[in-house]
Design a protein that fits this description.
alpha+beta; two-stranded antiparallel ribbon; extended; 2 helices
Length: about 60
Amino acid sequence: MLGDVPWRFDVVETAMEKKDGYWLPLETPGLGIEVNEREAAKHPFEQETLQQMMFHEDGSVAEW
C-alpha cells in the first residue's frame, strides 16, 4: 500500500503486486493502472505549504 492518501485506491486501480519491498513486473503491457476520473475529480489538487525553507545568502534554496 502506498499510504500517501487514504483515497489512493478509490482513484487508481492497479494489478501491481509488491513482494519483499519491490513491485513485481506486470504480465500485461502498459503501466498497469486505471484512473477513475470521476473519483479523481472529488480530490482536486491543493498546493502543499512548505513547513520550512532555508536559503543561502544569494537567495538560492539550501534545502528541499
